[in-house]
Design brief:
Blueprint (H helix, E strand, L loop, with lengths): L1 H14 L6 H10 L7 H4 L6 E8 L2 E7 L7 H8 L13 H18 L3
Antiparallel strand pairs: 1-2
Helix pairs in contact: 2-5, 4-5
Bound molecules: heme C (HEC).
C-alpha cells in the first residue's frame, strides 16, 4: 500500500496546475485571497454576511457585507482593485478575480439546480 503511494507521488506532483480544477482554484482564492477572506464579509457562497453588530446612541447597528452573486465580472474586477470604506483593497490578478467570479457563478447555478 505504502509502496503504491510512493510510485504515484511523482505523478501527483507533476500534475501541477491541472491537479485542481478551475472551480476548486476559485474556491481557494475566494476563501484565501492573499488577505482577508471574502467569506468573512460575503459569506461562503457570496450570499452576504454580517460583518459586525454593535450598539450606539441610535440603538442596535449592523454592518453587512452585500450579496455579490449577481454582480457582473466587470463590477467584481473594479471592486476588488480599489479602496472602499470597509472592504480592503486586494492585489489579485485579473485572472484570479475572474476565477473567483466563475466560482461564485458556478456555485450559484449548481445550487439553483441549473
Ligand atoms: C471586510 C469585509 C469585506 C471583505 C473581506 C471583502 N468585502 Fe467585498 N464588500 C464589502 C462591503 C461592505 C461592500 C459594499 C461596498 C463597501 O461599502 O465597500 C463590498 C462590496 C463588494 C462587491 C460589490 C461592488 C459593487 O459594485 O457593488 C464585490 C463584487 C465584492 N465586494 C467582492 C469581494 C471579493 C471577491 C472579496 C475577496 C477577494 C471581498 N469582496 C472581500 C466588504 C468586504
Amino acid at each position: 500500500m505504502v509502496k503504491k503511494i510512493v510510485y504515484l507521488l511523482p505523478l501527483l506532483v507533476g500534475a501541477g496546475e491541472d491537479f485542481i480544477s478551475h472551480y476548486e482554484y476559485g474556491q481557494m482564492l475566494y476563501n484565501n485571497p492573499r488577505g482577508v477572506s471574502c467569506v468573512s464579509c460575503h459569506g461562503e457562497r457570496g450570499e452576504g454576511a454580517t460583518i459586525v453588530e454593535y450598539r450606539d446612541i441610535h440603538g442596535n447597528q449592523t454592518i453587512q457585507g452585500p450579496d455579490i452573486r449577481n454582480k457582473t465580472k466587470a463590477q467584481m474586477l473594479q471592486s476588488v482593485n480599489r479602496y472602499h470604506r470597509i472592504m480592503p483593497k486586494y492585489y489579485l490578478t485579473t485572472k484570479e478575480v475572474e476565477t473567483i467570479y466563475d466560482y461564485i457563478q458556478k456555485r450559484k447555478a449548481y445550487e439553483s439546480g441549473e
